[in-house]
TrEMBL record:
The lineage of its organism: Eukaryota, Metazoa, Chordata, Craniata, Vertebrata. GO terms for cellular component: external side of plasma membrane. This is FOLR1 protein. The keyword Nuclease does not apply. Residues 1-155 form the Folate receptor-like domain. PANTHER family: FOLATE RECEPTOR, FOLATE RECEPTOR 1-RELATED. It comes from Trogon melanurus. Keywords: Disulfide bond, Signal.
Length: 228
């Protein structure tokens, strides 16, 4: 998870576990319907790195009324290219479930397909990129038509040599959220390159700090895996 090495919510051990087929992070097996091709798996690794390590998801942290997690991310606006490349590289892989958050058979201690389910190509389970990005983690992500570099969508991966593009995106949505609450929907923040050098607003840091306290050194947000 190198893009976040200078400012991360995860440890080096979390980064290492994110790259394993059978990770201790969630005991989740990517190869539940056969071996996942490397070009597809890289997107899931990037997804895990973003989820575990990014300090820029504060505007989308939501309370969860569940026995297996208290907080989650909801409707993170992914860039169009990220969703479409994820779908394109995984469309020929097979899976038995549309929602990977819950409904698995955990009898063996790791996820297996539920009884009676069939392994089908991603392109059938998720006919469009939008279906994949929004349904696989129960609306953690939101498909958008915004492009990378627009300042209005989160990139799942980036070149740290050019800075973290998600900083300005989180600032934009945090400001938008605050402005909307104050009845100032038409007020928007500066989105030029200079913003990237500004310190984080308290609005974004506070929810992240609360989550880090609740989870400890393992990361920022407990994704969790349900069996129901």
């Amino acid at each position: 998870c190198a893009p976040w090495k200078d400012n991360a919510c995860c440890t080096a051990n979390t980064s290492s576990e994110a790259h394993k087929d059978q990770s201790n992070l969630y005991n989740f097996n990517w190869n539940h319907c056969g071996v996942m091709p490397p070009k597809c798996k890289r997107h899931f690794i990037q997804d895990t790195c973003l989820y575990e390590c990014s300090p820029n998801l504060g505007p989308w942290i939501d309370q969860a009324d569940s026995s297996w997690r208290r907080e989650r991310i909801l409707h993170v606006p992914l860039c169009k290219e990220d969703c479409e490349e994820w779908w394109e590289d995984c469309k020929d892989y097979v899976t038995c479930k549309e929602n990977w958050h819950k409904g698995w058979n955990w009898a063996t201690g790791t996820n297996r397909c539920p009884w009676g389910s069939m392994c089908r190509p991603f392109s059938q389970v998720f006919p469009r990129p939008k279906d994949l990005c929004e349904k696989i983690w129960s609306n953690s992500y939101k498909y958008t038509t915004e492009h990378r570099g627009s300042g209005h969508c989160i990139q799942m991966w980036f070149d740290p040599a050019h800075g973290n593009p998600n900083v300005v995106v989180a600032k934009y949505y945090a400001w938008k959220k605050r402005s909307s609450s104050a009845g100032m929907e038409n007020v928007t923040p500066e989105t030029d390159k200079a913003v990237c050098a500004l310190p984080w607003p308290v609005l974004v840091l506070l929810p992240l700090a609360l989550v880090m306290v609740s989870k400890g050194a393992g990361g920022c947000r407990p994704r969790g895996w349900g069996s129901l």
